[in-house]
């Protein structure tokens, strides 16, 4: 069975998934939260029970000096596609001459490896400062609804392709309850440690605001908000990207190429239309017990990037 067929099988084998998620979910808050005070989560004395903001996890910068663009990649936020787009905008002629395709330009075979890639915006600017003023750059990042991103990550990392077998996802196998609780505990711990563990799964699940040097540069970025829930939302993201590129004088032929490739193709690891997606989305959204953990993990992603925090109905 090839990877595509295996992915389709595992993500739609609902009975297999349900078997690992048949634990009863408590109706009470693990933190003593009640409906009357649910809106005060992560404020005042309760702040210490929420994952901190602006921890320095990583910054993945891709540049297009031709169009004065700096983009920061955040895993599961169209990062592979944004990386491919930035490679195209770095050198359109080379990209097209090499018969490259935005959809299939994966990290392992990317054309621009170590060419337009930096681990901080300042290093990128310093690299080009002889030809481009530091104030001329346009910063770009794509954020995603924290609930949607968590579910997508859980399915992709813990169900579709667990890299460490049964030890993947904190040893929780396919069980969401186990993973939500243990990952919350890991995040709290890692937000106060001097040396972070930075395992592969963490790089996907840790908060979005821990990246891109947002602590210092959030106000510099143009933030595009992404949900991946339906085709209209994807089209909105593509339109937002192309509006920015148009402002940076990217030619119409390139904008059309980007639009056509992004709207008429979906990457192989997309999980939005699967049985697994529906099952885990329903399980999380209908459980205030699980949802409170997730809110406490991503509280500052909700606040900083203007996503609505779900109501908790205990």
From TrEMBL:
GO terms for cellular component: membrane. One of its GO terms (molecular function) is chondroitin 4-sulfotransferase activity. It holds the Pfam family Sulfotransfer_2. InterPro entries: Chst-1-like, Sulfotransferase. It comes from the Eukaryota. GO terms for biological process: chondroitin sulfate proteoglycan biosynthetic process; positive regulation of response to oxidative stress. PANTHER family: PROTEIN CBG14245 (PTHR22900:SF5), PROTEIN CBG14245-RELATED (PTHR22900). This is Carbohydrate sulfotransferase. It comes from Strongyloides venezuelensis (Threadworm).
């Amino acid at each position: 069975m090839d990877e595509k067929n295996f992915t389709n099988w595992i993500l739609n084998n609902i009975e297999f998934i349900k078997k690992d998620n048949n634990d009863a979910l408590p109706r009470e808050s693990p933190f003593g939260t009640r409906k009357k005070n649910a809106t005060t989560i992560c404020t005042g004395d309760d702040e210490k029970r929420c994952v901190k903001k602006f921890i320095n996890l990583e910054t993945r910068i891709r540049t297009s000096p031709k169009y004065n663009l700096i983009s920061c990649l955040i895993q599961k936020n169209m990062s592979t596609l944004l990386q491919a787009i930035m490679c195209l905008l770095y050198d359109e002629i080379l990209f097209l001459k090499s018969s490259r395709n935005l959809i299939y330009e994966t990290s392992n075979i990317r054309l621009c490896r170590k060419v337009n890639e930096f681990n901080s915006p300042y290093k990128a600017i310093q690299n080009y400062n002889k030809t481009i003023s530091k104030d001329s750059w346009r910063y770009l990042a794509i954020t995603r609804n924290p609930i949607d991103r968590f579910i997508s990550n859980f399915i992709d990392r813990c169900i579709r392709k667990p890299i460490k077998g049964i030890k993947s996802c904190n040893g929780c196998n396919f069980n969401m309850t186990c993973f939500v609780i243990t990952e919350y505990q890991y995040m709290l711990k890692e937000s106060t440690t001097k040396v972070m563990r930075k395992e592969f799964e963490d790089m996907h699940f840790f908060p979005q605001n821990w990246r891109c040097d947002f602590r210092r540069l959030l106000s510099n970025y143009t933030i595009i908000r992404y949900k991946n829930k339906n085709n209209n939302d994807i089209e909105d993201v593509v339109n937002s990207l192309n509006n920015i590129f148009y402002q940076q004088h990217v030619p119409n032929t390139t904008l059309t190429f980007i639009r056509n490739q992004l709207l008429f193709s979906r990457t192989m690891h997309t999980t939005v239309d699967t049985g697994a997606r529906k099952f885990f989305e329903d399980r999380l959204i209908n459980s205030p017990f699980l949802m409170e953990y997730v809110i406490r993990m991503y509280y500052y992603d909700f606040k900083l990037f203007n996503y609505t925090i779900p109501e908790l109905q205990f």
